[in-house]
Amino acid sequence: MFETILLPTDGSEHAEAAADTGLELAAVHDAAVHVVCVADTGPLGDLRLPGDAASAEDAMRERAQEHVDAILERAEGTGLDVAGTVLQGPPEHEILEYAADNDVDLIVMGTRGRGGVHRMAMGSVTDHVIRFGEIPVFVANDGKESD
Q1: Whether the predicted pLDDT of 109 surpasses 80
Q2: pTM for the full model?
Q3: 147 part of a folded domain
Q4: CATH of the domain at 31
Q5: Residue 98 falls within a domain, yes or no?
């Protein structure tokens, strides 16, 4: 039923729980898995950060790659066809564009479970992907209550 599953991550516990669910679904369906993390660099420009990163953008891309690598490591030994990449831009748009460009059949995402005023004020990448995407979205949570 599903040939290609997309696992967006931001390294949060919610995304990690969703990745576990996505890998399980991929195993059941013998689906290829694409893991993405979006470095939302926005208007940071050339802001310098301490350490090895030449800029805030570099630091964000490096951190995003670490999140992707963590899921790729968890997928090792599963026999699944797994690939990962770092994208750059607004996460909600980059996820939908990547899914469309790569013939993704299912997106498995986490959510913090925020609702009401907090969600209206903060927005939600998962909510945007559900509302504006044309690809089914499986929303997984880590079973913990949110704040």
Answers
A1: yes
A2: 0.85
A3: no
A4: 3.40.50.620
A5: yes
